[in-house]
Write the structure tokens for this entry.
Amino acid sequence: MSFPYIQSKMKEVGKGMTQGTVKWFNSDKGFGFIAPDGGAEDVFVHYTEILGSGYRSLEENQRVQFEVGQGAKGPQATGVTPV
């Protein structure tokens, strides 16, 4: 049995995802910046947008996948996951 509507929606889920490298992340303050692939401007990341359970942090030079939304002061990463 085929579910074309569901399959088309599944394809859309990853549509807005981009990848990049963590420039820096301050675990004490819970935020940092990601340099997106392709040279776009750096994107702010808050620990609440890192997907996972328990203590959520990122490491410098870590590869991540994320979506870009608009934060109060510019672009902000959402739905951040390690690659």
